[in-house]
Design goal:
alpha+beta; Enterococcus faecalis V583 fold; 2 domains; four-stranded antiparallel β-sheet
């Protein structure tokens, strides 16, 4: 086979994994028990590899807070000193098939959603969404109130939810997405329909759980219209675990930001990151006094959902999100069309009624992005440099990442070919 034929065959294999993937939520377990390679002194952070001293304030706070939460340190100052001495290590979440949205981090004792791709056998993981309270580790804030919520999630919440999911025999995320097609979710920054459908599947099993905190857990889930996002992140990571094992493939399999740098991963080079300066998410602000100068660059792994075709890639499925951030229906359609131009396939399980019942594009080919000079657009929440959510909007993915990825994959192919 020629190199071109090997690349085409590899891409066909990756697209088979992506389009036939069947992510099923099967359990809730402590990260140390669920995530391969997880260690007691390891804290996973969003985005590409970063040195501890370069962490922006929200991630520094989240890492330190997680260390206190796990009993590794008595307070956040001591925790940070331990990080700087190397006694507490950090690593990119996506290198471990995990996802951390915004400033979320994952420590050993934190419960994680365990999702298995029933088609390829991969597994992915994500911490639960903490709810609508703005004071959360997810936005780089830590204090007694945040610790109280973290402890509840680690204790009663995880116990009740895990038992319910196991009783259910597993919840098929494709079924959730299919049921909610045409209900306005783009499933990165907007997923009230999917969260509602997921809650409806969970409640009968939750009612069978004999636990004093059961009713509180039901209320927490019912009130959280972003609950589905973190389950879906684990689902996408499950699919990408297998996709990252295909040499020669030019399909994007990961992306995320740490506030300083933004990076992508490609199937043909596994967990290798291709990075550049993180773009700013532009849109609306929660506080009218906030300006662009107050913002960090792109922060979080939640955009891994877009690697699988959700969010900005499927903007036409959720045009109301664009309206909320200052865009239009035409903008939504144009974003999805941009993604189609550089993608190798299309999902068929969730056709969009107002887009001629087409599905959303999947499988961004880095060659097409560079060759056509067409950049996909990602949705996301924006973070304040000092911690907290600034607002929400969108960002064009940086071309430098794709150029570096093409060069990196070309070098890898030469090695494979013995050149």
């Amino acid at each position: 086979m020629t190199v071109a034929e090997k690349v085409a065959a590899a891409n066909e294999k990756v697209m088979d994994i992506m389009t036939n993937g069947r992510p099923v939520w099967i359990d809730v377990k402590p990260a140390i028990e669920a995530v391969p390679g997880m260690e007691k002194n390891l804290i996973l952070v969003p985005g590409p590899t970063i040195r501890p001293e370069d962490l922006p304030i929200p991630l520094k706070t989240a890492v330190s807070g997680a260390a206190v939460h796990d009993g590794l340190a008595k307070n956040i100052d001591e925790a940070w000193e331990m990080v700087m001495r190397g006694e507490i290590r950090i690593a990119p979440s996506q290198d471990y098939n995990c996802g951390n949205a915004a400033s979320s981090v994952m420590s050993a004792s934190m419960p994680v959603f365990v999702v298995e791709d029933k088609y390829s056998g991969g597994r992915g993981y994500c911490v639960p969404h903490p709810g609508s309270n703005p004071r959360v580790l997810r936005w780089g804030i830590y204090g007694d109130d945040v610790e109280e919520n973290l402890s509840f999630i680690r204790g009663d919440y995880a116990a009740v939810l895990g038992e319910a999911v196991r009783k259910s025999g597993g919840i098929d995320l494709i079924r959730i997405l299919s049921k909610t097609a045409g209900m306005g979710d783009e499933n990165h920054n907007r997923q009230p329909a999917a969260s509602m459908a997921l809650a409806l599947e969970l409640v009968p099993w939750l009612l069978d759980v004999d636990h004093p905190a059961r009713d509180r857990v039901i209320k927490e889930i019912a009130a959280n219209d972003r609950f589905f996002l973190h389950v879906m992140m684990a689902g996408v990571e499950a699919i990408m675990q297998s996709a990252k094992k295909v040499p020669y493939s030019t399909v994007m399999t990961g992306m995320g930001g740490n506030g300083i740098e933004f990076g992508i991963q490609v199937a043909g080079t596994g967990n290798r990151w291709y990075t550049t300066k993180a773009p700013i998410i532009k849109g609306i602000f929660l506080n009218p006094t906030t300006t662009e100068k107050d913002l960090l660059g792109y922060l979080g792994d939640s955009c891994v959902t877009e690697v699988w075709g959700l969010g900005g890639m499927s903007a036409i499925a959720g045009p109301s999100y664009l309206r909320m951030t200052g865009g239009t229906f035409r903008d939504a359609k144009e974003r999805t069309e941009k993604a189609r131009q550089v993608s190798l396939g299309e999902h068929t399980f969730a056709p969009v009624p107002w887009d001629d019942y087409r599905g959303f594009p999947v499988g961004v080919d880095i060659r097409k992005v560079v060759g056509k000079n067409v950049l996909p657009i990602s949705h996301g929440g924006s973070a304040l440099k000092t911690g907290g959510q600034a607002g929400a909007g969108a960002a064009e993915l940086p071309m430098d990442c794709f150029r570096k990825a093409v060069e990196g994959l070309a070098c890898e192919v030469k090695k494979l070919e013995g050149e």
